[in-house]
């Protein structure tokens, strides 16, 4: 993974606790993702059949160094008899570390009932420990746990380390413990760099909960949560820290995830962090200009008639593949009838990039899997990468000269709307007033939700919007949209999936089209026979109570099953088709006065309506 420019001093490490599996699984995944070092978690070693020396040899073979051994708990500020036992315990671990080839041991601030609140005693005993470590050529990095009994801030751990004044005693800074408590990290700059022995990086969502539970279950890789890791790490580097940037993430999902992709996700988070710090250079994300096309694969018959009903025209047919190009305004849908499953699904999205080659280069540098392209001579060479959920993401530039549209032979004849079209691919065809794609909504497997948001942010340069949650008929749904350059991708995920109740509610995906006049579009689509989704009267009664749209409008919304929402900017009118071929549906969206949301308040009503429709269709 040496394709990344590195400034001297950028070493990347990961704690084995971040990854799932046995120590062997973890080391293999960390090395494959390009990490240079690991923090070995004691439990991973204890459960391993390898001796510490064999672990070291294995790491050497993989090109990994063992940068930290951890955690050593409940050492300091204890009565003499306990101190003697703790020093004996430490000597055993020093012997392990010598075999492991690890030179730094992490000591967490005590949570022991044996300890007393006495900084002088803590400093004195840590001095003794550092002396013993130094005799083995080892160092002690003291870390304030956010829930430490007496020492739970970095400022406090630094006072003790300074008082102990031993060259083999320094600090371990862990962004979670510092930022979760709301400490100001700026004062880290005042700590001499040579006293910063180790840096652990973790992000987390903002949660109001017990800090230990928050830390042990909900940490995330940098860029996936709410903490400002760029500012934090900037302070640490400004202090003169020169050790590795090491990820230490305790997370229930990552602990069960395939360690290979999880380690790649981790590495991507570090690369993006380093880019934001200016310590690693990546090709700048080229400007995007909207959705070029979205591809649906299906073996069933439902999608094409629905597109015709929405006023789309079948304008092109791929010269070598069973792929039809449907267009209306700037909205382009590819229907790939080579789909293997009967149910339709969104298999690819394509974004307009100012520089597709640079987009693909950046994606590759951020470890996005590059997809092999099968194309015949003379066909456009589109670069594509795989998103975490397997969706193909294409980078293209639609226009004269190098257009992918040239791969499609024109289809002449009558448009589904009855309007004659010349059948030139790429031309703007108006059927029912759709102007383009507003957003593409991809339901994510819950386990890829945070990874996906980071992927789209880092790889495509999109901005993640805040996470929202809403109560849907079949469970809570978490939602996050990534936007930029007229590209909007909505990531939705069921928080839990348990049992087989509601088997028909299989992760639908949808494509939302933009219109300047939702009412006129709905009328035109009804006339064209679009399979639009009926919305029950209760919704409109409540809408009247809540937002009181003008009575005429309310009547029209009710008559056409159009939903309504308002935010601080403006108003949303939107409506939906039925689910087509098991999984995909379409939405039509009119944003008035800069409405910026997605009508999340209406999603539960839409979901229940889809469910009703599916039951009726059985
Ligand atoms: O949760 C813990 O106990 C724990 C252990 C070691 C660490 O470095 C840490 O940040 C937390
Ligand atoms: Mg830590």
Automatic annotation (TrEMBL):
Q: TM spans, by residue?
A: none
Q: Which cofactor(s) does the record list?
A: a divalent metal cation
Q: Which InterPro entries match?
A: DSD, Glyas_Bleomycin-R_OHBP_Dase, Glyas_Fos-R_dOase_dom, IolE/XylAMocC-like, VOC_core, Xyl_isomerase-like_sf, Xyl_isomerase-like_TIM-brl
Q: In which pathway does it act?
A: Aromatic compound metabolism; 3,4-dihydroxybenzoate biosynthesis
Might you give the EC number(s) for this enzyme?
4.2.1.118
Which keywords annotate this record? Lyase, Metal-binding
**Binding locations of a divalent metal cation:** 143, 174, 200, 248
Q: Which reaction does it catalyse?
A: 3-dehydroshikimate = 3,4-dihydroxybenzoate + H2O
Binding of Mg(2+), residues = 439, 510, 587
Family recorded in the similarity comment: Belongs to the bacterial two-domain DSD family.
Function summary = Catalyzes the conversion of 3-dehydroshikimate to protocatechuate (3,4-dihydroxybenzoate), a common intermediate of quinate and shikimate degradation pathways.
Q: What is this protein called?
A: 3-dehydroshikimate dehydratase
Name the source organism. Amycolatopsis rhabdoformis
